[in-house]
Design brief:
The complex is a heterodimer of chains A (745) and B (66). Chain A is mainly beta. In chain A, 4% of the residues lie in helices and 56% in strands. Mean pLDDT of chain A is 88; it is low at 3-16 and 98-102. Chain B has 66 residues and is α+β, with helices and mostly antiparallel strands. Chain B has a domain at 21-66. In chain B, 41% of the residues lie in helices and 38% in strands. In chain B, the strands form 2 sheets. A 3-stranded antiparallel sheet of chain B has the order 2-1-5. Chain B has a two-stranded antiparallel sheet with strand order 3-4. In chain B, a hairpin with a 2-residue loop joins strand 1 and strand 2. The radius of gyration of chain B is 18 Å and the shape is elongated. The mean pLDDT of chain B is 82. Classes of the chains: A mainly beta (745), B alpha+beta (66).
């Protein structure tokens, strides 16, 4: 109680000094002049304001304190300042923008990506969506080290450095998302609606993100609110020929001085996808609707955000037949259809979170409390009666305290926990996994230290997971407890011309209830799965090294890694058949090792500011303790793209043209019962143009798989029935944003 | 006002008619696949739940598109 009163008094005193913060934005030349309409983004507060014509800005009703402020303006570079603000006028200086190579990117921890100790990849969604894709999962696979697996287009699962499913953890704005991700046919549970950027942490990252993050973490961050005292209405529509698919979304954003909110809605509808031979993959159709609301409120040094995400989708599962003589042609038709069919999945998600942040001079407190509800119905042969009905409820919290010990030392203390209930509907005729309650509790501490060009980081974490099932007719009751002790240590030297990072991090993943106890047909994955109650936790340690050269117009990065997983859990084809399907059993190897390299290159010549040449190579190798290759490891991928930007203010003005060439090397390092995959080339082309009228809008068009290449990706779920990936695909889209400034009193 | 009512009425008719699910169905007979025609709504649900009866034999009906 005494501690509580002390803390309360301490917090209360921090509420007392509400101020009017003000300042200006100037050019950094000796005789600098004001920069009109600069964006002043208070990163910690989530508040954007716009400077006036004289570069002057003002923010009322917040406390004095140390804030991270991102300043940007058209034609000038952007910069992040961490500075103490008071009622004394503060001036920020920006230099003219010569290039876009080192674009300012701030991670969700509020640090610059290029100043981060760990190799974290932060990308605005519009940059990876430059040549649009049908799904978010496909867009993410443009990131080095990230791939996708899944079934057709409707089910897309991210793969990070060779691991996927339960080994990849997904966060949406500090809320961990659970969606039966153990299943090969259970895809990413969200669309790109309202997502501003995505961060990818590659390799074990249990320290900050909890159990399971052995492969890595996908951290989605919502679009920011609009500038204070303004509103925006936006519409976006896309069409593609491959699925005759449409994606339509609308958004409304508004910010007043105290309240700000974003509201979105979207609907996508895709028919069966077209193959290079002009036929269609029967039942590869899907439709999905999504909605999102974010409401933000701030007073003095307290910020609260309420967030709600809704998703509803019906996803066809191709590859079903009653014929005895089955060939790839069995699953292809001459007629494209989009009506409801079976087998199919119907998914409904509700994600709700309350994020709170309290900012003080040397302290930051973050607390997120959330609840996610994932409903999954699997229809096998009947339209009205689903065979499997699973309801996953997850209640969780995420708390973090940051203490700025000195100018150079930051101390973090955090805790995360969740209580998860996974229940089968008793009326459903089948159950693949039993009802289970899972509870997680973890705590961590982390210290970072900065000295000149050097950065150091060290942290430790403890986790406890309990899985409990009740006695059911086919499976006895189980009560299992798993503990994880993890650490992370990193060192970086960040100089102007080069940066070196070395990180060692560990992670653990407790077996899921499906790995322990499943016993049934998994229709979406075309197999009978049997769990193994004797499985122990997987423990991983990764060494990640990166070296980057930064020249004025050239950047090169080399990022090798080595990830060793003890007690590696894998699905093994037993070679037997159960109910006419191959029997896959969960087994455990003493260890497995995954290693490889990500290589990146970006050239943006001074003489040609309009030109960007980018290239990346991602390669991963995986083997067990006997050096036998592991199955389902991605092909080595080479991704090259050239973008030409155009400046101008014609009525119809090309903004950019982009050519992308992808080469996937053949995969001949194969697991048991696995077949090889041939190499293939893909060529994509895209362009964007702006129509500058009183209501300007953007038109994008282009083509994916321009050469109509017939290929089957090594990770494609339809590979085992010989169904290729999509053929040539033309797309057309438009986007309009209507901005309006609110009157100020 | 009249046009609003007309639009609403058309909307209701479209929504009501769009809800009725219809499928062509068949069963696997002794000598192969036997088409049994189109079933809609409750009839389709009954067929899925209870099967298709020929004499004393109840066959599982398959109504998926193929």
């Amino acid at each position: 109680m005494r501690y509580f009163l002390t803390l309360s008094l301490f917090l209360f005193t921090n509420f007392l000094s509400s101020q009017e913060l003000k300042g200006s934005v100037m050019t950094s030349e000796p005789n600098g002049h004001p920069i009109p309409f600069a964006h002043v983004n208070f990163v910690d507060l989530g508040i954007n304001i716009l400077a006036d014509t004289n570069g002057y800005w003002q923010l009322n009703g917040v406390n004095e304190g140390v804030y991270r402020i991102e300043i940007s303006a058209y034609g000038y570079g952007s910069a992040l300042f961490e500075t103490e603000l008071s009622n004394v006028r503060t001036t920020f200086y920006l230099s003219e923008n010569h290039r876009e190579l080192d674009k300012l990117i701030i991670t969700h921890h509020g640090v610059l990506q290029n100043q981060s100790i760990t190799a974290i990849e932060t990308l605005p969604l519009k940059s990876i969506h430059a040549i649009p894709t049908a799904t978010l999962g496909e867009a993410l696979s443009a990131i080095p080290g990230v791939y996708q697996t899944g079934i057709g287009l409707g089910v897309s699962k991210p793969v990070i450095r060779g691991l996927s499913g339960s080994s990849v953890v997904t966060y949406v704005n500090s809320l961990r998302i659970e969606n039966q991700q153990w299943g090969g046919d259970h895809g990413l549970p969200l669309t790109s609606l309202g997502i501003g950027s995505v961060e990818v942490i590659k390799g074990p990252a249990s320290l900050l993100y909890g159990a399971d993050a052995l492969g890595g973490v996908l951290y989605f961050i919502d679009e920011p609110y609009v500038s204070q005292q303004s509103r925006q209405l936006s519409f976006e529509s896309k069409f593609n020929t491959m699925t005759m698919g449409t994606s339509n979304e609308a958004g409304f954003k508004m910010s007043t001085k105290k309240i700000r909110f974003n509201i979105y809605g979207a609907y996508d509808n895709h028919a069966d996808y077209q193959l290079p031979n002009k036929k269609y993959v029967l039942n590869s159709r899907f439709n999905q609707s999504a909605a999102k609301v974010a409401i933000g409120y701030g007073k003095k040094n307290w910020i609260v955000n309420l967030r709600y995400n809704f998703y509803n989708g019906r996803i066809g599962l191709p590859g079903h037949t009653h014929e005895l003589d089955v060939t790839p042609l069995t699953f292809q038709t001459m007629v494209q259809n989009r009506g409801e069919n079976v087998p199919a999945q119907a998914i409904t998600n509700h994600f709700f979170a309350i994020e709170q942040k309290l900012l003080m001079k040397r302290h930051e407190l973050h607390l997120t409390i959330g609840h996610t509800r994932n409903g999954l119905k699997e229809f096998e042969e009947k339209f009205f009666t689903p065979d499997i009905v699973l309801q996953l409820n997850n209640t969780l919290y995420n708390a973090k305290w940051r203490y700025k010990f000195t100018e150079n030392i930051d101390f973090f203390l955090g805790s995360q926990g969740m209580f998860q209930q996974n229940e089968n509907n008793p009326l459903a005729p089948e159950r693949l996994i039993p009802n289970a309650n899972t509870s997680d509790l973890g705590a961590y501490t982390l210290v970072t230290y900065r000295k000149d060009r050097w950065r150091f980081q060290v942290g430790a974490r403890f986790d406890n997971r309990t899985i409990e099932t009740k006695d059911e007719d086919f499976i006895p009751a189980v009560l299992k407890q798993y503990r994880g002790y993890n650490y992370s240590a990193g060192i970086a030297r960040l100089a102007k011309k080069s940066s070196i990072r070395l990180n060692v991090s560990s992670g653990f993943r407790a077996p899921t209830s499906s790995e322990l106890l499943s016993d049934g047909i998994h229709h979406g994955a075309f197999r009978y799965e049997r769990g193994n109650v004797a499985l122990a936790t997987e423990k991983a340690v990764q060494i990640d090294f990166s070296y980057a050269f930064h020249f004025d117009d050239l950047e090169i990065i080399v990022n090798p890694f080595y990830n060793r997983i003890r007690d590696y859990i894998y699905l093994s084809n037993s070679g037997e058949l159960v109910e006419d399907l191959p029997l896959f059993e969960y087994e455990q190897a003493d260890y497995a090792q995954l290693y490889g390299v990500d290589f990146g290159f970006h050239y943006h010549p001074h003489e040609a500011h309009w030109l960007h040449v980018e290239s990346s190579l991602s390669s991963v190798f995986a083997e067990d303790m006997s050096r036998n290759p592991l199955p389902l490891i991605p092909q080595t991928r080479l991704n090259n793209q050239i973008r030409i930007d155009f400046d101008g203010d014609r009525k119809v003005q090309f903004k950019n043209i982009m050519v992308q060439y992808l080469y996937f090397f053949k995969q001949n390092r194969l697991g048991v019962f696995e077949t090889g995959t041939a190499d293939y080339h893909l060529l994509n082309l895209g362009a964007t143009l702006a129509v500058n009228t009183s209501k300007p809008f953007i038109i994008s068009f282009g083509v994916r798989n321009l050469l109509n290449t017939t290929y089957i990706d090594h990770l494609a779920g339809l590979k085992q029935i010989g169904i290729p990936n999509p053929g040539i695909n033309f797309y057309l889209g438009f986007k309009v944003e209507l901005n309006h400034n609110l009157k100020t009193k | 006002m009249k046009s609003v009512k007309t639009i609403l009425a058309i909307g209701v008719v479209i929504m009501a008619s769009a809800c009725e699910k219809c499928q062509e169905c068949h069963y696997e007979g002794v000598s192969g696949e036997v088409e049994i025609g189109e079933y809609c709504g409750d009839d389709l649900k009954n067929l899925e739940d209870n099967g298709y009866t020929v004499g004393d034999t109840v066959y599982t009906a398959h109504c998926e598109e193929h």
